Write a sequence for this structure.
C-alpha cells in the first residue's frame, strides 16, 4: 500500500502547481524526493510541512531566496521559533529600508521643487570620492554645476565596467586629483570655465558667448597637455561600444549650447591625437 503522495496530489492539496514544486526542488528549497521504480516522485509529511512553510512565508511577501535563507537546509529544518525569529529580523530590515526611502520622498515633497524625474537627487560613489578629495579647493561652486557633475558621474557608475576598465578609470581619477591638488590655480581656472558652462545652458547654440567659451576650453586644454594626455590615455582603455553609448547618454543631459561646446572640445581632442 502506498503511503506517500505523488506530485499531482501534493499540488492539489496545497493549491500549487507541480511546476512550482519542481522549481523549489531545483533551487534547493525542497529536498529531492524519493521515486517509484517507474520514476514518479513521492512526497511524505515532512515535504508537505516544508511546502506549507514556503507558501506561508511567500504570503508574507518574502522572495524564494529570502525563504531559503530563513528555512535553511531542507535536511535540517529549523524550529518554528527559529523561523519566526529569522522572519522578524528580515522584515525589520525591510521596514528600515522602506522607512529610509519614505523619509527621502517626504523630504522631496516638502521641498516642492521637483518638476520631473531628471531633477531627482543622485548618488555617485565616484563623485563623492572626488568631492572629498577636492572639496577644500572649491572655494565657490554653484549648486547647478555640482548637480550636473553628480548626474554624470552617477550615470557612469551605473554601468558594469570590466575590472581593467575600472582600474584604469580609478587610476586616471587619482592622477587628475593629484595634479589639481599640486596645481590648484589650474583647478580654479577649470572651475571658472565650468561655472560659465553651466550659465550658458539656456543660450542659443550659436550665441557669441557659447562660441567664445568653446574657444576658451580648447585654449585651456591646449595650455595643460598633462590633462589632455591623461584623458586620452583613459579613453584608449575604455574605448568600447558601451563607452560610446555612455557618451551619447551624457550628451543628452546637456542643452544644445552646451553640446556645441563639448563637440568643440571633442574635435580638438581628436585633432590632437593625429
Amino acid at each position: 500500500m502506498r503511503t506517500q503522495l505523488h506530485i499531482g496530489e501534493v499540488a492539489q492539496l496545497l493549491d500549487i502547481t507541480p511546476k512550482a514544486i519542481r522549481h523549489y526542488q531545483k533551487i534547493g528549497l525542497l529536498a529531492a524526493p524519493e521515486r517509484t521504480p517507474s520514476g514518479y516522485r513521492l512526497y511524505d509529511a515532512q515535504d508537505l510541512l516544508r511546502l506549507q512553510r514556503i507558501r506561508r512565508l511567500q504570503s508574507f511577501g518574502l522572495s524564494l531566496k529570502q525563504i531559503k535563507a530563513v528555512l535553511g537546509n531542507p535536511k535540517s529544518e529549523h524550529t518554528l521559533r527559529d523561523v519566526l525569529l529569522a522572519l522578524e529580523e528580515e522584515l525589520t530590515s525591510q521596514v528600515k529600508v522602506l522607512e529610509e526611502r519614505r523619509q527621502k520622498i517626504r523630504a522631496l515633497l516638502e521641498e516642492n521643487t521637483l518638476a520631473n524625474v531628471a531633477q531627482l537627487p543622485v548618488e555617485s560613489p565616484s563623485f563623492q570620492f572626488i568631492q572629498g578629495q577636492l572639496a577644500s579647493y572649491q572655494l565657490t561652486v554653484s549648486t547647478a554645476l555640482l548637480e550636473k557633475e553628480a548626474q554624470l558621474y552617477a550615470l557612469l557608475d551605473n554601468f558594469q565596467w570590466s575590472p581593467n576598465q575600472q582600474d584604469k578609470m580609478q587610476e586616471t581619477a587619482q592622477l587628475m586629483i593629484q595634479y589639481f591638488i599640486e596645481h590648484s590655480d589650474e583647478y580654479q581656472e577649470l572651475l571658472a570655465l565650468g561655472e560659465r558652462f553651466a550659465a550658458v545652458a539656456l543660450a542659443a547654440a550659436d550665441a557669441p558667448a557659447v562660441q567664445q567659451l568653446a574657444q576658451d576650453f580648447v585654449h585651456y586644454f591646449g595650455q595643460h597637455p598633462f590633462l589632455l594626455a591623461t584623458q586620452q590615455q583613459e579613453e584608449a582603455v575604455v574605448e568600447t561600444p558601451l563607452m560610446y553609448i555612455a557618451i551619447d547618454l551624457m550628451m543628452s543631459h546637456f542643452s544644445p549650447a552646451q553640446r556645441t561646446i563639448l563637440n568643440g572640445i571633442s574635435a580638438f581632442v581628436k585633432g590632437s591625437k593625429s
Notes: Residues 115-120 have pLDDT under 50 and may be disordered.
